[in-house]
Queue: 4 jobs
Job 1
Amino acid sequence: MRSIRKAKGITIKNFNKEKWDKYLDEYYNGNINGKEEVISPPPRTTIKSSLLSYTELKSSLITLYRDKGYSSTQAYIYSLYNKSKISLLTRSQLLSHINVYHSLPRRERKKLLSL
């Protein structure tokens, strides 16, 4: 079965014999090696992040949780995220860390937070 689509490339309508002969002459003389030049990409630049890291905030949030409680610590984490100072991943890690403390019984929580 024949395809409906026509082949693209050199056809009788757009064939220019002079250009083709010139290309063949350059190719046979060694001016064209048959391979295109490889263009190297520009060097990578490092992006300096202005976000606060998880390890920097962890100890300060524990002291905030000890002093002011769960809801204010949670509100502080959300405010940092809304101000784009922490990423979504860091926000979820910090919230889960605070949730672990909040889910503990009061006696165990006091022992852990007093250390």
Note: The chain has a mean pLDDT of 81.
Job 2
Amino acid sequence: MQRGHLIVSLPSDQYPPTEEEQQLLNMLLKKQQTSIELLISGTKEVLGIGALFAILNTPQVEEYIKKYIPMASRSEYSLLFVKTMLFVFFVFILKNFHLIRKQ
């Protein structure tokens, strides 16, 4: 009992793919990143998020937040909430920056 077909017996054409087909193939069969490329890419992301965290926790930024968002000056917890929301927003922007640039 044979399951499936031999690849040689499957129908195929002898013509090169059209430009549309080639673009579709390139999109579906993306080049796999090497371990070094993945490490560098991940390191950039971590450093960017770490820098954002450090910037949001500077006294100058805290004063700026308290000045322009009055809710943040009520208590340390409200300031923490505002900084957390800003951090989440900016991390989202950082992680999806490539999508924004394509448009």
Note: DSSP finds five helices and no strands in the chain.
Job 3
Amino acid sequence: MAAALLFPPPAELAAMQTVVQVATWLGMRENAIEAVLTRIGEFQDATAVADQPCEIREIGIIDAVEWYSIAMSTVIFLPAPAGADPAAAPPTRELYPGEASKVVMLWRVCRKALGEEDQDPVKLWRQSDQYWGALNRGLAPGVQAPTGNGAGAGPAAFPPLPPPVAGRKIKISALVDQTDETEIPEGDPTEIARYREEYVRVMRGEPPSDHEVNDDQLSAIAYRVTVMNRTLYADYAVWTPYGEQIGAAQKFKVWLPVGNGKYQNVELKGPINYQTWLGCHKVMRTAAIAIKALTPTTADNYEHLIQGMVRRFPEAECWGLLYMVEKRARQHYAQTVKMRAERDKAAGALWAADYDPNMPWDFVWRWFCSAAGRAEYWQEQFLGPCQDWLGRGGSGAPLAPSDEIVAQYMPGSSGAVPRQDPGGAAWAGGAGRGRKSGKGRGKGRVGKARPPGQGTSKRARARQKKGVKQAAWQKSHPPALALDGGKKGEKKGKGKGKAPDGGQYCFSWGRCRDGACKDLAIGAPCPAGRIHRCEFCDAADHKSANCPAKPSGVTW
């Protein structure tokens, strides 16, 4: 069986001169050909359909967006019922989906016959302002259908598409994605009503008030998925129940590597816990069902997937990692799965056999909930790191593999380059570190190579033994704190009040002491050139006097 061709072979295409020849090759029926020619004003009543002289260029020169509107507003003329008034307009019907597709292909084949670049009118229509301004899919209310009596009678009976209305713009960054600065026209009320009717049809009722999606949210997510052809994703820091009313309050804290071997507790925008995430997800579920991006079952299964991981790892430290991994799945990894499914479906792969190009994100989200998705994505990005974190006793913070790579190889990180001794051997640590086992020589230095000529004399061994004893005593007897925040007996001068980068902390600002900087706000520069950061955690968003890590013995 010969494979179906999208366009005629070059030799056959070159022989085509009229629109009827192209339409016949596409398999269009005579009533559809008559309707199209009548719609563009080129049908001659005294001539049979097969002999219509309309040339290919009459269609090939029409704009793509205009042709799509013509195709969607073309109607088929039906025979008048017996006894009908001869002066009345004949009955009509809209094109069937297969007929409409052939009308669109009629324009593409005509352009190819003229040697013009091939374009997709459907895609260009969805990218135009008219998509959001007015969709003319058939007869407008109160407009008489074309009678087909004479050339030019058809188009005169149809109203032209209204020009795009310069109205309010919607920012994607304020509703869907904080990193996307795209501005789109305000959603068409007809389209929004159609989306809401689709939800009611599927769910047999309206959504609860806290699951309701407002018009701007619905327009923005529909534009992102159908027009921009991007993933079904919304940032739950701005995509919230009740729209903008609580969006500014969505924040949570997470530990991130800062590049110097340390981690900083950073406040990021997003849901603070699973319950907050669930409220945002319910709104996404409503919108996804309305725009035919997800089925209710898929949306619910994804919700249960996240709920199961929260129950397995309820620790607060794990929530920050889970949200970042879950957000990354919807925003980025979903596109990878979609591209892989398209490629493997064409190759006949079994796992992508039920991939539907009309609902690609429903397939992708179902894959995330499947055993393959759990093993490939969730185990590597979340479950595995959390298990390792619990195996270490819950110290530090759980990190995804990508974050571990950043922490290990970022310039300045302690894990980037191992320290070297003068002889070239890698050191495992400094003096006094590591396990302490045995007595006498080498205590505290088990398994560590010594540089040549160091630590071998009798005095060196004595100093090392004395240092180990002092370190053990200091560990069991933490020093008391003086009223000024320093340790009792601490020598004044060099090194006191120094920041990790070598700068001098400003005590007047951090400790709220009398001085020029006592009442300065956070972020204000120091007139004396000192550093306005906390002397306990080196953070710049609070003063030392208000630091949660301030020792209890400090009274200022």
Note: Confidence is low (pLDDT under 50) at residues 132-165, 245-249, 405-455, 480-495.
Job 4
Amino acid sequence: MHNSRYPGFQPWILLSVGLALIGSPHALLADTPTAPPTAQQTYNEAQAAYDKSDWPTAIKGFASIARPDEGGEVSHAQGIIRARLAQAYAHERQPEEAVREAAIALKGLGPHDHIERALMWLAIGEAQRYGLAMPAAVEAYEKGLGAAQEAKSAELVASAQIGLALCYMTVDPAKATALMDAVLASPEASSYAKLLHAQYYDLRGRATLNLGQARQAIPFLTKAIALSGGISGTKVNLIQIGIRGDAAIGALLTNHEESAREYLAWTGAGHMKSEEWTSGFGSPPHCSEAADIRPDDVVVVEFSIAADGHVLGAAPIYASRPGTLGIAFAKAVKGWNWNPERIATLPSFWRNMVRVELRCDSRPSARGLSDPFRRETLAWLAEKQLSPEDLAPREQGYVASNDPRLERDDVAAIPALLARLPIETDHKKVVALARLLTTALNKAGAPAAARALAMNLEPEDPSSYSTARHVRTRASQVASLEQTDPGSAATAWITLEYALALEGDGRFKDARPILERVLAYPTDVVGEHDPVRDVAILHLALLQRRAGDAAGADTKVKAAGLTPAQCMLFDVRPVVSNNAVYSDDFPEEALRWGFDGYVRETFNIKADGHVENVRTLVAYPPFVFRSGAERSVAHFRYLAPVIDGVSAGCDGHAIIVRFNAHP
């Protein structure tokens, strides 16, 4: 496989053209004989860094020889320096600094510096689009297009046109359509290189998809496939991957599933070897009337995952409505993060272009039972006067497996141990980390909250997991806390987790007395409407209702003053009674093509345990497994907490369904 012939050319990262177009850089300071020799040397070093895309070094060098802006005239040499500085800032994703430098550069650039101006504005447009500031990006690209046309540079004109089309794509697809129509109808169209011609047809087709005209988009996308070399061959670049991905969306939206799977098979989607990498998929935005994000909206976002796990760039590819909808979803994706170790085995080429189908989440973020204990632990650690470096892992949620603190048992190692424990995949190391953490917490005189949190974070051995084994683990944790921290809120929480584990194992009679133990804690330890107490009440009532005492269950809940609205604020932990996924729900074509898939579903649980209002929140690859996952979830059954005949806190319940063609 090889990259595009345009270095760095990706859907959100536009072409940068070499400075060979404007002559040798080493003579640019020749008109300033008073400049000290060291300034020339600094310039040469900065330019060398610029040519190597070493933007921080280029910024440092150019900034050191840029004269202070006093509002007066700017020499041509200083104009060039400021233009290069603007470009370097733009490539470092610092658009405000880039725009500032560009304003100074324009005072010094001459009437024939069209390419310099084009490069500067295109870099700024790229940075603004990278930051999803589309109006500012459009303004910069339009200036870059004007300069490129004056310079008669077909390559820079193409970059500006593509940048503008991408800015308009989901915001105003009609403008993207008009722009591409003009480009394709121009006299120069016959001389375009095939891959560039393919890009124009692809963008025209993608814009048509965003206009809600999927059938009309197919001819453009089919033409783009043909011009880009078809879908066979052993070499592929990111432009071809994007074209095939767009064609797959068009085929799926027009119910041509076989064609869609064929296109997707040549994009790498659904063929990532490790299913662990999908754990990095974060949350979509919340449905919001104020933000005009509706439950039936659908957006496909494309992004790249850096080696350190953060999202390099995110851009909306498809949105079911024009406007700012796609931008809102892309902004949410930019905040996602991956464990670097879980993506280490993924080829970097495929990490450069991941597409995911998204819908908004209609439920506010529910408070987890562990949340107050996590806050208490962090507050305790803050009091220990640890260095920012030692505190950082717990805030970041990640620490590398070779971090030396993972071999220590002092208080400064606790944040690193807490961060590493839940993400460690080698169970032998999990056991060793848990032992070190327990020792460190005991030596530091940690509060019960920290000990309980550590217990809850420790993953069980997946190779031998069973609900019965989970019950034994929880029972052991309760016994330990009752020895070290009897009567604490943390012990009440882990006791509740023990009861929920018993329910999950089908041992409902055994769970009842454990729930009653939780409710026996005084209200000055477990507050009157503490989630731990409320969940215990709801589950005790659930067991009463299951045993046929509906009246007693209602009395218990009403006496506690609980309402369905209150229960939506925390995770009530409904009990699964049937969550089987059937092979018939695996799309036949996807199975034949060997696709794996990830789907996060949300649904409401009714008082009788049936589910309704099933919606897909996150799906990878886009549009492939959504229907199968929704069919599977429709069969699920739960034991739900009930208040006044209505399920409590069970609207917007979310689960993950994974489809594995190669289990």
Note: The first helix runs from residue 37 to 51.
